[in-house]
From TrEMBL:
This is Glucokinase. CDD domains: ASKHA_NBD_GLK. Pfam families: Glucokinase. The keyword Transmembrane applies. Keywords: Kinase, Membrane, Transferase, Transmembrane, Transmembrane helix.
Protein backbone atom coordinates (compact mmCIF):
# COMPACT_ATOMS: atom_id res chain seq x y z
CA UNK A 1 0.00 0.00 0.00
CA UNK A 2 1.35 3.46 -0.90
CA UNK A 3 0.71 6.46 1.35
CA UNK A 4 1.12 10.23 1.21
CA UNK A 5 4.18 10.16 3.48
CA UNK A 6 4.48 13.89 4.24
CA UNK A 7 1.44 13.79 6.53
CA UNK A 8 2.01 10.50 8.32
CA UNK A 9 3.72 9.23 11.45
CA UNK A 10 4.80 5.70 12.22
CA UNK A 11 4.08 4.48 15.76
CA UNK A 12 5.11 1.19 17.37
CA UNK A 13 4.26 -0.34 20.74
CA UNK A 14 6.95 -2.89 21.67
CA UNK A 15 6.09 -5.42 24.36
CA UNK A 16 7.94 -8.47 25.55
CA UNK A 17 5.99 -10.81 23.24
CA UNK A 18 4.45 -8.73 20.44
CA UNK A 19 5.01 -5.46 18.62
CA UNK A 20 2.13 -3.42 17.24
CA UNK A 21 2.84 -0.96 14.44
CA UNK A 22 0.53 1.55 12.79
CA UNK A 23 0.44 4.79 10.85
CA UNK A 24 -1.16 7.95 12.16
CA UNK A 25 -2.32 11.20 10.61
CA UNK A 26 -1.89 13.79 13.33
CA UNK A 27 -3.28 12.22 16.50
CA UNK A 28 -5.61 9.90 14.54
CA UNK A 29 -4.58 6.27 14.10
CA UNK A 30 -5.17 4.77 10.68
CA UNK A 31 -6.71 1.52 11.86
CA UNK A 32 -6.39 -0.22 8.50
CA UNK A 33 -2.61 0.14 8.78
CA UNK A 34 -2.35 -1.66 12.13
CA UNK A 35 -0.22 -4.82 12.18
CA UNK A 36 0.96 -7.11 14.95
CA UNK A 37 4.33 -8.90 14.84
CA UNK A 38 5.54 -11.77 17.05
CA UNK A 39 8.90 -10.68 18.44
CA UNK A 40 10.17 -14.27 18.39
CA UNK A 41 9.96 -14.20 14.58
CA UNK A 42 12.39 -11.28 14.29
CA UNK A 43 15.96 -10.64 15.49
CA UNK A 44 15.36 -6.99 16.31
CA UNK A 45 12.88 -4.13 16.21
CA UNK A 46 14.81 -2.77 13.24
CA UNK A 47 13.87 -5.90 11.32
CA UNK A 48 10.20 -5.57 12.34
CA UNK A 49 10.03 -1.94 11.24
CA UNK A 50 11.93 -2.63 8.01
CA UNK A 51 9.33 -5.25 7.06
CA UNK A 52 6.49 -2.88 7.94
CA UNK A 53 7.93 0.11 6.05
CA UNK A 54 8.55 -2.01 2.96
CA UNK A 55 5.06 -3.51 3.03
CA UNK A 56 3.38 -0.13 3.48
CA UNK A 57 5.70 1.72 1.04
CA UNK A 58 5.88 4.62 3.44
CA UNK A 59 8.50 7.28 4.17
CA UNK A 60 7.15 9.02 7.26
CA UNK A 61 7.58 12.55 8.54
CA UNK A 62 7.79 11.33 12.16
CA UNK A 63 8.20 8.09 14.11
CA UNK A 64 7.83 7.08 17.74
CA UNK A 65 8.25 3.85 19.68
CA UNK A 66 6.92 2.84 23.10
CA UNK A 67 9.21 0.43 24.95
CA UNK A 68 8.28 -1.91 27.82
CA UNK A 69 11.40 -0.99 29.76
CA UNK A 70 13.54 1.93 30.91
CA UNK A 71 14.28 4.78 28.49
CA UNK A 72 17.01 7.40 28.79
CA UNK A 73 18.18 10.05 26.32
CA UNK A 74 16.34 8.52 23.40
CA UNK A 75 17.51 4.97 24.07
CA UNK A 76 15.31 2.16 25.40
CA UNK A 77 15.99 -1.35 26.62
CA UNK A 78 13.21 -3.91 26.91
CA UNK A 79 12.99 -5.49 30.35
CA UNK A 80 11.84 -8.93 29.17
CA UNK A 81 13.55 -9.12 25.76
CA UNK A 82 17.13 -8.52 24.63
CA UNK A 83 16.26 -5.67 22.27
CA UNK A 84 17.65 -2.14 22.36
CA UNK A 85 15.92 0.75 20.60
CA UNK A 86 17.26 4.21 19.83
CA UNK A 87 16.41 7.20 17.65
CA UNK A 88 19.36 6.53 15.31
CA UNK A 89 17.83 3.18 14.35
CA UNK A 90 14.40 4.78 13.95
CA UNK A 91 15.82 7.43 11.63
CA UNK A 92 17.67 4.83 9.59
CA UNK A 93 14.60 2.63 9.04
CA UNK A 94 11.84 5.23 8.69
CA UNK A 95 13.83 8.22 7.36
CA UNK A 96 11.64 10.34 9.61
CA UNK A 97 12.78 13.77 10.77
CA UNK A 98 10.97 13.89 14.12
CA UNK A 99 11.70 10.95 16.39
CA UNK A 100 10.82 9.78 19.89
CA UNK A 101 11.44 6.74 22.09
CA UNK A 102 9.20 6.58 25.17
CA UNK A 103 8.53 4.16 27.98
CA UNK A 104 5.24 2.35 27.31
CA UNK A 105 3.57 3.98 30.33
CA UNK A 106 4.60 7.40 29.05
CA UNK A 107 2.82 6.57 25.80
CA UNK A 108 -0.28 5.48 27.71
CA UNK A 109 -0.29 8.76 29.62
CA UNK A 110 -0.08 10.76 26.38
CA UNK A 111 -3.19 8.86 25.22
CA UNK A 112 -5.34 10.35 27.99
CA UNK A 113 -7.91 12.65 26.42
CA UNK A 114 -7.82 10.58 23.22
CA UNK A 115 -9.56 7.47 24.61
CA UNK A 116 -13.25 6.97 23.75
CA UNK A 117 -15.52 7.16 26.83
CA UNK A 118 -16.87 3.68 26.15
CA UNK A 119 -13.32 2.34 26.57
CA UNK A 120 -13.16 3.57 30.19
CA UNK A 121 -14.75 1.53 33.00
CA UNK A 122 -15.37 3.42 36.23
CA UNK A 123 -14.00 1.86 39.44
CA UNK A 124 -14.23 4.87 41.77
CA UNK A 125 -16.39 7.71 40.42
CA UNK A 126 -15.38 11.36 40.54
CA UNK A 127 -17.00 13.46 43.21
CA UNK A 128 -19.63 15.84 41.89
CA UNK A 129 -18.18 19.10 40.60
CA UNK A 130 -14.59 17.94 40.99
CA UNK A 131 -12.01 18.49 38.28
CA UNK A 132 -8.25 18.45 37.94
CA UNK A 133 -5.51 18.37 35.36
CA UNK A 134 -2.91 15.98 36.78
CA UNK A 135 -3.62 12.38 35.80
CA UNK A 136 -1.87 9.12 36.54
CA UNK A 137 -1.62 5.86 34.57
CA UNK A 138 -0.84 2.66 36.49
CA UNK A 139 0.05 -0.37 34.40
CA UNK A 140 -0.40 -3.89 35.76
CA UNK A 141 0.33 -6.61 33.24
CA UNK A 142 3.49 -8.53 32.40
CA UNK A 143 5.18 -5.97 34.63
CA UNK A 144 4.19 -2.99 36.77
CA UNK A 145 4.83 0.71 36.25
CA UNK A 146 3.18 4.12 36.45
CA UNK A 147 3.43 7.49 34.70
CA UNK A 148 2.04 10.89 35.65
CA UNK A 149 0.68 13.31 33.03
CA UNK A 150 1.32 16.95 33.95
CA UNK A 151 -0.38 19.71 31.97
CA UNK A 152 1.79 22.81 31.54
CA UNK A 153 1.55 25.99 29.42
CA UNK A 154 4.08 24.37 27.10
CA UNK A 155 2.07 21.17 26.72
CA UNK A 156 1.82 17.81 28.45
CA UNK A 157 4.87 16.49 30.27
CA UNK A 158 5.12 12.80 31.18
CA UNK A 159 8.31 11.96 33.11
CA UNK A 160 9.54 8.35 32.89
CA UNK A 161 9.51 6.11 35.95
CA UNK A 162 10.19 2.53 37.05
CA UNK A 163 7.70 2.28 39.92
CA UNK A 164 7.43 -1.51 39.72
CA UNK A 165 10.89 -2.04 41.12
CA UNK A 166 10.39 -0.29 44.44
CA UNK A 167 9.97 -2.35 47.61
CA UNK A 168 6.67 -4.17 48.13
CA UNK A 169 4.64 -2.48 50.91
CA UNK A 170 4.27 -4.41 54.17
CA UNK A 171 1.71 -3.51 56.83
CA UNK A 172 0.91 -6.82 58.52
CA UNK A 173 2.73 -9.92 59.73
CA UNK A 174 1.07 -11.92 56.93
CA UNK A 175 2.24 -9.44 54.29
CA UNK A 176 5.73 -9.71 55.77
CA UNK A 177 5.49 -13.46 55.22
CA UNK A 178 4.69 -12.88 51.55
CA UNK A 179 7.58 -10.43 51.22
CA UNK A 180 10.00 -12.89 52.80
CA UNK A 181 8.74 -15.67 50.50
CA UNK A 182 9.29 -13.50 47.41
CA UNK A 183 12.65 -12.30 48.69
CA UNK A 184 13.81 -15.90 49.14
CA UNK A 185 12.67 -16.68 45.58
CA UNK A 186 14.02 -13.64 43.78
CA UNK A 187 16.50 -11.91 46.09
CA UNK A 188 14.27 -8.83 46.47
CA UNK A 189 10.55 -8.33 47.04
CA UNK A 190 9.45 -5.63 44.61
CA UNK A 191 5.99 -4.36 43.77
CA UNK A 192 6.24 -6.04 40.36
CA UNK A 193 7.00 -9.38 42.03
CA UNK A 194 3.48 -9.37 43.53
CA UNK A 195 1.55 -7.16 41.09
CA UNK A 196 2.00 -8.61 37.60
CA UNK A 197 1.26 -11.89 35.86
CA UNK A 198 4.15 -13.60 37.62
CA UNK A 199 3.18 -11.70 40.78
CA UNK A 200 -0.10 -13.58 40.98
CA UNK A 201 1.85 -16.81 40.51
CA UNK A 202 4.16 -15.82 43.39
CA UNK A 203 1.18 -15.11 45.66
CA UNK A 204 -0.40 -18.44 44.77
CA UNK A 205 2.83 -20.36 45.41
CA UNK A 206 3.09 -18.65 48.81
CA UNK A 207 -0.54 -19.41 49.74
CA UNK A 208 -0.81 -22.91 48.26
CA UNK A 209 2.71 -24.27 48.49
CA UNK A 210 2.56 -25.27 44.82
CA UNK A 211 2.71 -23.60 41.43
CA UNK A 212 0.02 -22.77 38.88
CA UNK A 213 0.08 -20.46 35.87
CA UNK A 214 -1.69 -17.10 35.92
CA UNK A 215 -4.37 -18.41 33.53
CA UNK A 216 -4.94 -21.49 35.67
CA UNK A 217 -5.26 -19.41 38.83
CA UNK A 218 -7.77 -17.02 37.29
CA UNK A 219 -9.85 -19.85 35.86
CA UNK A 220 -9.93 -21.60 39.26
CA UNK A 221 -11.37 -18.75 41.33
CA UNK A 222 -14.29 -20.14 43.41
CA UNK A 223 -13.20 -23.73 42.67
CA UNK A 224 -9.77 -23.59 44.31
CA UNK A 225 -9.75 -21.76 47.69
CA UNK A 226 -6.06 -20.93 47.26
CA UNK A 227 -6.79 -19.32 43.89
CA UNK A 228 -9.61 -17.29 45.44
CA UNK A 229 -7.40 -16.10 48.30
CA UNK A 230 -4.56 -15.30 45.90
CA UNK A 231 -6.78 -13.10 43.74
CA UNK A 232 -8.10 -11.39 46.87
CA UNK A 233 -4.54 -10.66 47.98
CA UNK A 234 -3.69 -9.34 44.52
CA UNK A 235 -6.71 -7.00 44.43
CA UNK A 236 -6.03 -5.63 47.90
CA UNK A 237 -2.32 -5.10 47.20
CA UNK A 238 -3.22 -3.44 43.92
CA UNK A 239 -5.56 -1.05 45.72
CA UNK A 240 -2.98 -0.27 48.40
CA UNK A 241 -0.17 0.45 45.93
CA UNK A 242 -2.44 2.51 43.66
CA UNK A 243 -3.45 4.51 46.73
CA UNK A 244 0.20 5.09 47.62
CA UNK A 245 0.89 6.37 44.10
CA UNK A 246 -2.17 8.62 44.26
CA UNK A 247 -0.77 10.26 47.40
CA UNK A 248 2.59 10.76 45.71
CA UNK A 249 1.24 12.30 42.48
CA UNK A 250 -2.19 13.73 43.55
CA UNK A 251 -4.01 12.86 40.28
CA UNK A 252 -7.18 14.91 40.77
CA UNK A 253 -7.84 14.44 37.05
CA UNK A 254 -8.06 10.69 37.57
CA UNK A 255 -6.06 7.49 38.00
CA UNK A 256 -6.23 5.09 35.02
CA UNK A 257 -5.47 1.38 35.35
CA UNK A 258 -4.13 -0.33 32.24
CA UNK A 259 -2.72 -3.73 31.33
CA UNK A 260 -3.92 -7.31 31.12
CA UNK A 261 -3.86 -7.93 34.86
CA UNK A 262 -5.83 -4.76 35.55
CA UNK A 263 -8.56 -5.98 33.22
CA UNK A 264 -8.44 -9.52 34.59
CA UNK A 265 -8.94 -8.22 38.13
CA UNK A 266 -11.73 -5.75 37.31
CA UNK A 267 -14.56 -8.28 37.96
CA UNK A 268 -13.16 -8.82 41.47
CA UNK A 269 -12.64 -5.19 42.51
CA UNK A 270 -15.94 -4.84 44.36
CA UNK A 271 -15.89 -8.34 45.81
CA UNK A 272 -12.38 -8.14 47.25
CA UNK A 273 -12.26 -4.48 48.27
CA UNK A 274 -10.08 -2.60 45.79
CA UNK A 275 -11.67 0.76 46.69
CA UNK A 276 -11.41 0.08 50.43
CA UNK A 277 -7.72 -0.79 50.11
CA UNK A 278 -7.12 2.22 47.86
CA UNK A 279 -8.55 4.58 50.47
CA UNK A 280 -7.17 2.83 53.56
CA UNK A 281 -4.58 5.48 54.49
CA UNK A 282 -5.38 6.36 58.09
CA UNK A 283 -6.26 10.02 58.58
CA UNK A 284 -5.91 10.56 54.82
CA UNK A 285 -8.51 7.89 53.96
CA UNK A 286 -11.23 10.40 53.11
CA UNK A 287 -8.74 12.45 51.08
CA UNK A 288 -8.11 9.43 48.81
CA UNK A 289 -11.78 9.43 47.83
CA UNK A 290 -11.13 12.54 45.75
CA UNK A 291 -9.28 10.60 43.07
CA UNK A 292 -11.52 8.96 40.43
CA UNK A 293 -10.25 5.59 39.19
CA UNK A 294 -10.99 3.95 35.83
CA UNK A 295 -9.83 0.90 33.90
CA UNK A 296 -8.72 1.58 30.31
CA UNK A 297 -10.11 -1.01 27.88
CA UNK A 298 -8.49 0.35 24.71
CA UNK A 299 -5.96 -2.09 23.22
CA UNK A 300 -4.39 0.64 21.09
CA UNK A 301 -4.05 3.39 23.70
CA UNK A 302 -0.24 3.34 23.63
CA UNK A 303 -0.25 3.82 19.85
CA UNK A 304 -2.76 6.67 20.17
CA UNK A 305 -0.54 8.22 22.83
CA UNK A 306 2.52 8.09 20.59
CA UNK A 307 0.55 9.70 17.77
CA UNK A 308 -0.71 12.43 20.11
CA UNK A 309 2.79 13.05 21.43
CA UNK A 310 4.21 13.47 17.93
CA UNK A 311 1.31 15.74 16.92
CA UNK A 312 1.78 17.90 20.04
CA UNK A 313 5.53 18.15 19.54
CA UNK A 314 4.94 19.59 16.08
CA UNK A 315 3.00 22.59 17.39
Amino acid sequence: MTHDSDRLSLVADVGGTNTRVALAEGSRLLTDSLRRFRNADHPSLEDVLSVYVADESVDCAAAAVAVAGPVRDGEGQLTNLDWSIDTAMLARVTRAERLAVLNDLQAQAHALGHIAPDKLRTVIPAREGQSGSTRLVVGVGTGFNAAVALETPGGRIVPPAECGHVTMPVRTAEALGLAEFVDDRHGFASVEDVLSGRGLENIYAWKAGRSRSTAEILSAVDDDPDATRSVEWFVRLMGAVAGDLALIYLPFGGLFLIGGMSRAMTPYFDRFGFAESFCDKGRFSDFLGQFPVSVVEDDFAALSGLAAHLADSRT
